[in-house]
Each structure stands twice: as structure tokens, then as C-alpha cells.
């Protein structure tokens, strides 16, 4: 039976267009999903759009549209962007789907029935943009939101509250018992630090008189579900674990070979750590459901030294970069440049450095190796010993595996690129052009070319999770029916295969 892996991205607000920040999370998740599929896992990879709440309602008003029209347009836009960036998601969820509404209703009703929800009133400050309440002492200068800097509004209103504080101890115990539950460690420490203060209760509703664009609470239709509660539940909806008609666990919930819940990995940005590592697990505890197995919080892309923002006009559009450099180059840059978990700065100079690496190391190796097979052996991989780089391959695979196990994807990619560098060195040392001139060394040349053919197959497998498009093209040129699994590639007997020369994998770019 194959192992099941369920991984998720945040669902993106349907109020703004995708930029490299959203693209980074989604490409990271896609690459991890592809590594899992290569291992033979049965994968459910979820992404989607977060479509309720005040932010969406206001953006729709601003554009003179109905909220659902805005959401339809934005969901299409995200989906199209992800398809262009070769994101192989299995499910794209929209929180306006009927199925999701049913699961949210069942979930909050369950919290209510279990006595974890009570009615109270809230007086204080509210940030529309962040959709959250603040107390006077939280506020920045001039009554502004401490998170986004926008002006806040003073409000007093009836709210329904979730007894989040009741689960504080259980949550701390869970985090302490599972050292890898939140990665990287700085983020885990951040959550543990936050939990040193008493955890307040969580307002889970907004009055419909103020906000109509949401899912009404089943036990009080004058209130809609707080958008973050609505949004977090998407992970459960997409797992199919809750049957909205039953209002309870779907049949097979407890059977690990049939159920997708709990999720194996929530991939998020560090900005939404509290909602995922505090709100979400306590809500699940309240509902009596298992917690996700792991949370990976990555860092923040800035542009040069500045935060990316619409008002500064410095938002980097991944699709524009793709027009010039191709999908795989965008993916490679984002995943290779940012140490998983830390922040990184986008600059055009660094983008070019990473593009050059693709072109001059991997692309160049593929080009020269295939050209030599064409030139010296008429395009057929000769019957030689293909094992000339097997020890280097073994070391690389170990390094890749260790890096992936530590959620350090950038290191796994560095190891793959180093293998290509090593192979370029191998070509220099073996000097196949000299071997070709000397008829007594025909056997040596066969070994060199067979070794390179195998090595290129390994590289197409290793690069596939990040560069799916160029890896598939390389596999095709090597005469393989598809990108091989890593295991198949390292055992590969390439003899007799017909290779095909083509344009460089990463052409010189005219800027
Ligand atoms: N809708 C919520 C998430 C709900 S999940 C149940 C939300 N949406 S968002 O559109 O603002 O996207 C936030 C996510 O986008 C971040 O967590 C991060 O993954 C990604 N990024 C947005 N800007 C980013 C950067 N500048 N850098 C890196 N990632 C960033 O929050």
C-alpha cells in the first residue's frame, strides 16, 4: 500500500493578484509534492482561494462588482497563474463552494454543541484589512493597526467566542511533545513564547449587519463566521474527512488508507503562524479532531531592502519573469535563492546569477554530453560502463534526502546542481574529444558517454520537482519515455538509446 501524503498551501485572498510571495509558497509546496510522488506516495496537494470577509466585500464594492463576481475572476486568475507555473495541484478549493459551507456549518455547530462557544460582546478597535481586533495598547501611532499600519475603527458589537484559552495547556503539551511539529525552530520558539501569556478566547463571528459576505452561523444567522475560522476549515473540507450531510466524520475517517485527514504538512508564510499554530489546532481540539502532522513556516520575500507592496509599486509579477526566462527559471530562482525558512531579497542581479547557474552548469552539461553522443556515436548511447559517476550520485542522493528530511529544500537543490558541476569536471578530466581521436581508447569513450547518459537521467529526476518542464524535455532528448524516478535513473542501463540534440535547455536571454 502506498503512503498517503496530504500537503497544503494557504488559500490566497481573492482580493489581490498573485505575486512572487504567493508563487513561492505554492511552488515550494508543488516541489515537495513532486518529491513525494517520486517516492511513490499517493499525494493530495491542495491550494485555493480565500473568498469571504470584509476585505473581499470592500474590494468588490470598490470595483462596483458583486463579491462573487470578484471571486470568480480572481479564482480563475490564481488558477491560471498556477497552471502557467506548472503547479500540479490536485484540488483547488474556493471557500464559496457549497461543500465548504456545509463543512464550516458542521464544524462550528459541533463546537457549539460541545459547549466551547459562548456569546459575549466586544468593544475595542478593529482593522478591516487584517480582519482582526486590537486593544488600545496594541495600536501603533495615530490609532493604526500594528500589523499593516492602516487606520483602525472603534467598534462595540455582539460576538460569539470560542473558548480558545481552555486548550492552551493541551497545545503547549503538544508542541513540547512534538519537536518537529512547527519548523523551523525559530518559529516553534515564537509560538511557545506567545503561549507564555494567557491565551484569550477567540471571536469567531462578525455581525451580518456590518459584514454580509460570509457563512452564517447555523445557531445564529445574524452572524457570519469569522473569515479566519472559515478559511482554516478549508483544509478539512478538501480532505473529504467531514461529510457535510452527516455533519460528522465521513465513513472511513479512521482508516489511514482511506482518509486524508490529518494533513501531513501545512506550508505557510511566517505571517500567518499564529492562525495556523494556535487558532487552528485549538479549534480542532475543540471539535475533537486530530491535528495536522506538521507546519512549515517559510520566510518573507522583500524587494531589495523594502517590503513588497502595491502602494510602493514594487510588486514582482512571477508571470512577467516567466515570459522572459521561462517557468522553470522562476521556480528555480525562488526555491534555490531563499533558504527554506529564512527571508530573502529579490533583485534582478541575483535572478540572473541563478539563471546562469541553470544555463551554464546543468544546461551546458546536457548540451555537450548529448552533442558528443551524436558526434562520436551517431546519436546512440554506446555499450559502455555507465557507472563512472555512481559514487558521486550516491553521495548526492544522500545529501538530497538529508536536506529534504530537514525541510531545507534549497540545500537539496544545491546538491543536485553540484552533481551537474561534478559531471562537468568529469568531462574535463576524461577529455572525450581526445578519447575520440585515439582508436585504442574507443572503450574508454564508450564508458564516458554511457556514464554521462546515466548521469543526465539522474539529473532529470533530481531537477524534476523544481524544473518539471526542462526535466521532461531532457528526458525526451535522452530517449526516455518520461522523467524516471530517482531509483530507476541511478540503475539505468542507457545503452542503445537514441538521443536527440536540441536548442540549449536554457537559452541566452536578451534583456
Ligand atoms: N487568506 C489568508 C490565508 C488563509 S489560510 C487558511 C492569507 N492570504 S494571502 O493572500 O495574504 O497570502 C498569504 C501567504 O502568501 C503568506 O502566508 C505567504 O505564504 C505568501 N506570501 C505573501 N506575501 C509574501 C512575501 N512577500 N514573501 C513570501 N511569502 C508571502 O493570508
How do you describe this structure in short?
The chain has 511 residues and is an alpha/beta fold. It is built from 18 helices and 18 strands.
Distance between the termini: 50 Å
Global Rg: 26 Å
Q: Class of the domain at 348-490, according to the CATH hierarchy?
A: Mainly Alpha
For CATH, the homologous superfamily of the domain at 348-490 is named as: Isoleucyl-tRNA Synthetase, Domain 1
Give unreliable regions as ranges.
none
According to DSSP, the number of beta strands is: 18
**Strand coverage percent:** 15-25%
Q: What hetero molecules are bound to the protein chains?
A: 5'-O-[(L-methionyl)-sulphamoyl]adenosine
The CATH architecture category of the domain at 348-490 equals Orthogonal Bundle
Whole-number mean pLDDT? 95
| Biggest beta sheet summary | 6 strands, parallel
Instruction: Give the neighbour order of strands across the main sheet.
Output: 3-2-1-14-15-7
Structural class: alpha/beta
The CATH topology of the domain at 348-490 is what? Isoleucyl-tRNA Synthetase, Domain 1
Helix content percent band: 40-55%
How would you sum up this structure, described in words?
The protein has a domain at 348-490: Isoleucyl-tRNA Synthetase, Domain 1 (Orthogonal Bundle). A hairpin with a 2-residue loop joins strand 10 and strand 11. The chain has 511 residues and is of the alpha/beta class. The two termini are 50 Å apart. The protein has helices spanning 20-38, 54-63, 67-84, 98-113, 168-177, 185-194, 227-232, 234-239, 273-287, 318-325, 327-337, 348-377, 390-405, 409-430, 432-437, 442-463, 468-477, 486-490; strands at 4-13, 42-50, 91-94, 117-127, 132-134, 153-162, 182-183, 202-203, 205-207, 216-217, 220-225, 242-243, 248-249, 265-269, 295-298, 301-303, 306-307, 344-346. 5'-O-[(L-methionyl)-sulphamoyl]adenosine is lined by residues 10-13, 21-22, 24-25, 50, 231-232, 234, 268-269, 271-272, 300-301, 308.
